[in-house]
Design a protein that fits this description.
The chain contains 14 helices and seven strands. By secondary structure, the protein is of the alpha/beta class. The model has no long low-confidence stretch (mean pLDDT about 85).
Length: about 325
């Protein structure tokens, strides 16, 4: 038995090395349950490698036939589910039909959150999309919750479902580390938690906006709840005052930069968002403080504004926020 148990352990180690999903043992005639020692079971648990014991009298072919049938039905249901979710988040003409199908009772009515991931350029090529999705699904299966994951406009979109809106929707860092390094996200935008499928379109727009803010602020993960003033812009129905402020305050500076190949607009942004500190602005821009001082004086001459005035500074900061928002809207629309 000891020799047999040693062979069995070596066999399972090779299966783990080859990334097999699990093992079913027909016990009773050639292998006994006792040969699955505590040490071997502990090893399987450590490697997340399931081992099932099945009595010898049960025909494995019958089980596989039933399992394959169930698997095909589950895959078809998941594919249909993904098609409906895609149709709603992209606001297609059939959105109402898709929404009606989702709320028909076939699919579970649970809380959900969208996470939009930006991967490296190599990871999102068409050739590697299948491999990427397989790796992500292996990782996500450890969460033991319902999910959908697919590529949407070059980004990896994950929809996580939970029973209650107050449940934890995060993905543990140790799970992310199971992904190969080239497939790990460089940035992530998270939507608010929604409880109605009708909110899928808004949820996708929130995830896109949060991802854009993550890029702007150089954060790895950004939730829509945490994007601050940008979320207020999404609630506005009349964009004309915001557009007027942006056009009057920032467009002249941007045009000057374009005509003179200068960097006044980015310098002013750094200056305002670093509490009007020449030294901190120079450090953030990797520029000499004399260069920054010259640009600020040029900006005062060009605009006639005193940027040390709190109201003036606030207006220009708001104009920069507005410009970010307009760029985000180009993406979400």
């Amino acid at each position: 038995m000891n020799d047999h148990a040693s062979w069995l352990k070596n066999f399972i180690e090779r299966l783990v090395h080859c990334r097999a999903s699990g093992l079913i043992l027909n016990v009773g005639k050639y292998i006994s349950e006792q040969e699955m020692t505590d040490d071997l079971l502990a090893y399987c648990a450590e490697k997340d490698f399931p081992v099932f014991a099945m009595p010898w009298r049960i025909r494995f072919a019958d089980i596989m036939q039933d399992y394959c049938k169930r698997l095909l039905l589950a895959q078809q249901k998941e594919l249909n589910f993904e098609t409906l979710v895609r149709g709603i988040i992209t606001s297609s003409r059939q959105r109402e039909d898709y929404l009606q199908a989702l709320t028909s009772g076939i699919y579970p009515h649970t809380a959900f959150q969208l996470k939009l991931f930006e991967l490296s350029h190599d990871s999102v090529s068409e050739e590697k999309q299948v491999q990427t999705l397989e790796a992500w699904k292996r990782m996500l299966n450890h969460l033991r919750v319902q999910y959908l994951v697919f590529f949407q406009q070059g980004k990896l979109l994950l929809v996580l479902f939970r029973k209650n809106p107050d449940d934890d929707f995060s993905i543990p860092a140790e799970l992310m580390e199971k992904l190969p390094k080239p497939l790990r996200p460089v940035a992530c935008g998270e939507s608010m938690v929604h409880t109605q499928y009708a909110g899928l379109t808004e949820s996708y727009q929130q995830a896109e906006a949060a991802l854009e803010v993550a890029r702007l602020t150089e954060n790895t993960v950004m939730a829509f709840d945490d994007i601050g003033v940008y979320s207020l812009f999404f609630a506005l129905k009349n964009m004309k005052p915001l557009r007027k402020m942006y056009d009057e305050l920032l467009l002249p500076i941007l045009r000057y930069d374009e005509e003179h190949n200068s960097q006044l607009a980015p310098t002013l942004r750094y200056y305002l968002f670093h509490m009007n500190s020449i030294q901190e602005t120079a450090r953030a821009m990797y520029a000499h403080r004399n260069t920054v001082s010259y640009r600020i004086n040029k900006l005062k001459e060009l605009t006639g504004e005193d940027f040390d005035d709190a109201v003036v500074a606030f207006n220009y900061m708001l104009a920069y926020y507005a410009g970010d928002y307009f760029r985000m809207k180009e993406i979400t629309d």
